[in-house]
Design a protein that fits this description.
The protein is an all-alpha fold. Helices cover 79% and strands 0% of the residues. Pfam families: Sulf_transp.
């Protein structure tokens, strides 16, 4: 009686085979990665010869994209994941970023204010009205359907996602259309709201404390939400 030999690989062998294939794929991509790096450096030098700002923008954009891609940081996911998956890691990361920028921007603005200089960024304090709510709601729907906001879309376009390329195309069209009609929207809707600058209402220190307390409350809520979902 002959004994049949089972030729099927074990799970451990299959896992080793997959790891080996991934390593070979990474080795094959190494020359391409080096070529892309050289091209980026050359473009950076060419842009710097035209304008120092262009070179700085190029380097900053590449670094920002690298951080986004490696961290998978996306504002859409931070708002969407608590509802779809229950995870709030990105939500809490965004809240921490808001807390840091709150302190940093307040320091910059208060320094200018205390020195009697014009406060930077005041032109970006726009009126809040019902149009803001409608716009945020529409933009939120679009972000979820598209699978990313501006930062997430640009990052995934760099990764080669075809759907995100389509999203970017219509994002550009919508932005151009919005810029063309912006003055009409501003005159008929936006300016009918009220501009709110928290330091005018609560003072500089009070405004920072209120905003940080609100961010802390949202952070605790996000943490409790994730613990409740995965408990």
């Amino acid at each position: 009686m002959t004994k049949t030999n089972n030729s099927q690989p074990s799970p451990k062998e299959r896992s080793s085979s997959r790891i080996s294939k991934n390593r070979n794929a990474n080795k094959n991509q190494m020359p391409l990665g080096i070529a892309v790096l050289v091209i980026m450096i050359i473009i950076g030098f060419l842009l710097s010869n035209i304008s120092v700002k262009l070179g700085l923008f190029w380097i900053t954009g590449i670094c920002f994209g690298f951080v986004l891609q490696k961290s998978r940081f996306c504002f859409t996911a931070s708002m969407r994941d608590p509802y779809l998956t229950g995870g709030t890691a990105l939500t809490r990361a965004v809240l921490i970023a808001f807390a840091i920028t709150t302190i940093a921007f307040t320091a910059i603005k208060f320094s200018a204010y205390s020195s009697g200089l014009p406060i930077p960024g005041q032109t970006y304090i726009t009126p809040i009205s019902f149009a803001t709510v409608i716009g945020a709601f529409m933009f939120g729907i679009g972000m979820v359907i598209a699978g990313g906001c501006t930062s997430g879309t640009l990052m995934r376009v760099g990764e080669g996602f075809l759907v995100q390329m389509l999203t970017l195309f219509f994002f550009i069209i919508g932005s151009l259309w919005g810029a063309h009609d912006f003055e009409w929207w501003k005159l008929n809707f936006i300016l009918k709201g009220k501009a709110i600058f928290l330091p005018d209402l609560f003072g500089w220190f009070g405004a920072v404390i209120i905003q940080l307390l609100l961010i802390a409350a949202l952070y605790i809520l996000a943490d409790k939400w994730e613990n409740r979902i995965f408990k």
